[in-house]
Amino acid sequence: MKSRMKLLTAITxxxxxxxxxxxxxxxxxxxxxxxxxxTAQARxxxxxxxxxxxxxxxxxxxxxxxxxxxxxxLTWATAPAITTANNQAANWDGTAPTIGTVTNPAAVPVFAWxxxxxxxxxxxxxxxFAAGGPTLANISVASGAGLAHPGAATLATSSxxxxxxxGAATLATxxxxxxxxxxxxxxxxxxYTTIITYTATSV
Length: 203
Hints:
The chain is mainly beta.
C-alpha cells in the first residue's frame, strides 16, 4: 500500500511539473493500467536548404564567347568572278552594286536552366556598330524549336526588347540562326564589330 502511495505521489508531482510548462514535447511518457495502449512521442526536426541556381550557355563552352563573322561581297548584274587583285576587267553595266550571296554562320546552340519557382527570363543588350557600316537591324535572328531568342526578328540596341522565358527545373534548349541582311550600297569599307550580352534572370 505504501509503495502504491509513493508511486501515485510521484505521478502527481510529475503531472504538476508538466502542467507548469517545464516539460519538453520531445520527451513524453505514457502510463496506464489495463488493456488500453499507452503512447509516448518525441519529435525530430529536419531542415534541408536548397540554393537558387541559374545557368546560361550561348554557343560553345568557351570563356570569351563565340564569334560570328560575315563578309559582305559587293557585286553587280554583269560582274565576273571577282578576285582580290587590282586592275581586273570589270565588265560593269553601270548599275550600282549590291550585296552578293552572303554565307551566314552556323546556328548557335543555347541552353538555360534554373530551379527558381517562377522559372527564368532571358534578355540581351547590344551596342550599335560604328557609323558607316551596317546597323543591328541588318542582323536577323531566327529561333529554332525550344528556347526563343528575346526581342524581335532583328537585333536592336534597345534593352527594352521583350525577354523570352523558360520554366523551372526544366532544361531549356534551342538554336538561333543569325543572318546578315540589307543592301551594302551605303556601307563604307571597314570591319564593324559589337558584342551582344545575354542575361538570364530568375523569376
